[in-house]
Amino acid sequence: MASWGRVSAVLRNVLRGPRTLGSSAVRRAVAPVVVGSVVAGGLLCYYQHHANNRANIRTLPFTVHAEEQKEAAAPHLSARKVRFNKFASVVCEQEPYMTPRDFLFSVMLENVDRKLQKKILTTQEVNKMLVTASRACAGNNLFRTLGDNGLISYTEYLFLLTILTKPRTGFHIAFQMLDVDGNEQVDKKEFLKLKKIIGKSKLRVPKDTEKPAEEGEDVKTTLQAYFFGKEGENKLQYKDFLKFMEDLQAEVQEMEFLQFSKGMDTMRREDFAEWLLHYTNEEDNDIYWENMRKRIPAGQSITFDEFKAFCLFTNNIEDFSFSMKMVSGTNRPVGMAQFKRAVRIATGHDLSVNVLDTVFKLFDMDGDNCLSHKEFIGVMKDRVLRGLKPQNGFSGYWKCVKKETLKAAQEALGDTGCPF
User: Fold this and answer.
1) What rounded mean pLDDT belongs to the chain?
2) Are 45 and 4 in contact (CB under 8 A)?
3) Hey, which bits of 262-304 come out as E strands?
4) Could you give the CA distance from residue 29 to residue 21 in angstroms, rounded to a whole number?
5) Closest CA to 246 of 171, 157, 301, 155
6) DSSP for 191-236?
7) What is the pLDDT of residues 189-246, one digit of tens each?
8) Hey, what long-range contacts does 162-169 have (CB within 8 A, 24 or more apart)?
9) Torsion-angle region of residue 251: left (phi > 0), alpha (psi -120 to 50) or beta?
10) Rounded to whole angstroms, how far apart are CA atoms 185 and 300?
11) Please, are residues 155 and 212 in contact by the beta-carbon 8 Å criterion?
12) Mind listing the pLDDT tens digit for each residue in 87-138?
């Protein structure tokens, strides 16, 4: 455009200059030359303009955007990793960590309103946390007692979620596989393998995407200090690990009960229905809410023991699903008696009449006093997984557990043979 401006200025000077073009004859003689110059100059400017554009295009970053973006693209984060990062409130060695309080909030709340930046911990603060964890007493208020005085890594977050959502049978099998000498205890190195097994099993992401960070023995966390001491010299017995799992489940159940009962000793049936539908995202949710309003009478309550029995049932939902198919046939609607029997087969416990009646009135779509197996199981799985569905189902989960456990056991045994 600058070249075109210069040509225009020259032409104006030529046409206006009296000394050079004094007569009309001269103007007529010069006119073709001027027109030719204008055309040539215009073509030259047009060519230079587009040539410059082509040169600029070759240097602009967005013309090679696909290749550069592919090389520098951020890894895809799973839903669980995104949630972990959202609730994690501290940073240690440039890695985000949850505190015990953060973990409890992550399983109770749908979102967190983070008003402050993540706290960057010093070495002294981390050491103080490890000392506190190594001296902590077992109980169903462990995480609430520790509060923000502890570190939970992403792999441990997956591990703890699995404790809350899966039956303990699989843990015992994995524990026994790693317990080479059969003394019902494992050391810190073996526990890291167990945690890695469960963490891998919990995460389902495509290849070449986000994966749990590998954790070695030099990464010290609250769980490691609690199980093995600050220096990692202790052994973990299965009975202590079993108590830890039971205490963690009881702690979360108690907090959820208090959350939905508004701090009262009993939970109204409509509050229990609200808890059931929490974290679910089904197309029929509006119908469920309408069922609750029309069918569930006011003034009736559910105790904490009844609530705990139902939580035990949800943790064994796959066993229940199998037993219900055996009782009623594949995917057929079931009545309350069949449902109650399937629960007893799966868990060894009965659900109260209050709980059963609430479940049936809430999820009975057509008022025939029967439940659709497929729809009910889908809602309950959403409830257990708190809205974060893995890509593979239960069978894929335990298949991965079995594969990783066998691999770890073979590494522990070397060429000595089978532990059984």
Assistant:
1) 74
2) yes
3) 267-268, 301-302
4) 10
5) 171
6) HHHHHHHHHHHH----TTS--PPP--TT---HHHHHHH-TTS-S-E
7) 888 887 776 655 444 433 434 444 444 445 689 999 999 998 888 999 988 988 999 8
8) 162/198, 162/201, 162/202, 163/245, 163/248, 163/249, 164/107, 164/248, 164/249, 164/252, 164/315, 165/315, 165/384, 165/385, 166/315, 166/397, 167/315, 167/316, 167/318, 167/319, 168/242, 168/245
9) alpha
10) 46
11) yes
12) 999 999 899 999 999 999 998 888 887 778 899 999 999 999 999 999 999 9
Q: What percent of the chain has pLDDT over 70?
A: 64
Distance of CA 36 to the CA centre of its chain: 71
- Within 10 angstroms of residue 114's Cβ, the number of other Cβ atoms is 11
Q: How far apart are CA 410 and CA 193, in angstroms?
A: 12
pTM of the model: 0.68
Q: Which residues pair with 96 in a beta bridge?
A: 91
Which two structure tokens, joined as six digits, stand for 237? Answer: 């017995």
Token code pair at residue 152:
């939970």
Q: How far apart are CA 389 and CA 142, in angstroms?
A: 28
Torsion (CA) 373, 379, 381, 385 in degrees, nearest 10: 180
d(CA 412, CA 415): 9
The helix or strand, by DSSP H or E, that contains position 83, with its residue range, turns out to be helix 79-87
* Tokens representing residue 39 in the block: 């055309």
The answer for 232, left when phi > 0, alpha when psi is -120 to 50, beta otherwise, is: left
Report whether 298 contacts 374 (CB < 8 A).
no
Collapse the DSSP code of 121 into the 3-class scheme (helix H, G, I; strand E, B; otherwise coil) and give the result: coil
DSSP-derived 3-state class of residue 56: helix
State the pLDDT at residue 85.
Answer: 93
> Which tokens go with 101?
């309080």
